[in-house]
Amino acid sequence: MGEQTFNITDENIEQHIITLFEKLECMRKDANSDGLSGKVPARLEVRTLSLWKAVVAECAASFLYVFIVCGAAGGAGVGASASAVLLATALASGCAIATITLCFAHISGAHVNPAVSAALCVRRRVSPLRAALYVAAQCGGAIAGAAAIYG
């Protein structure tokens, strides 16, 4: 492969370098900006469709996770050894969380666990309103998943 050469005159090189550094500084500031700065206030966020899509996605993800893992633990067999039940539960848990993350990460972040939502709220990655709704949806989805297995 041959070398590529650029036709930049010596008198403009400083200007190009300064422009490049200014753009890099702006990108760095955008990446390091505070999690909640520039976000929508809670009274306006409640009205957005993306919030409610995310809440429903968290509820569905928690439902599926509890349903799959509890179903694997209960369906391992009546005469199964403890190690077989543990293996089935561990494999179901790993595969379920990987699949749920791939399916729901672009909608809500696929927190699935209320502790994760609370931690992200403390770290200011999600708003307190969103975190509270996520926790409520996750608890409701988990209860519904357990009820579906029980029923």
TrEMBL record:
The chain crosses the membrane at residues 55-78, 84-110, 131-150. It is a multi-pass membrane protein. The keyword Nucleotidyltransferase does not apply. GO terms for molecular function: water channel activity. One of its GO terms (cellular component) is plasma membrane. Keywords: Membrane, Transmembrane, Transmembrane helix, Transport. It is found in: Membrane. It comes from the Eukaryota. PANTHER family: AQUAPORIN TRANSPORTER (PTHR19139), NEUROGENIC PROTEIN BIG BRAIN (PTHR19139:SF268). Belongs to the MIP/aquaporin (TC 1.A.8) family. This is Neurogenic protein big brain. It comes from Papilio machaon. The lineage of its organism: Eukaryota, Metazoa, Ecdysozoa, Arthropoda, Hexapoda.
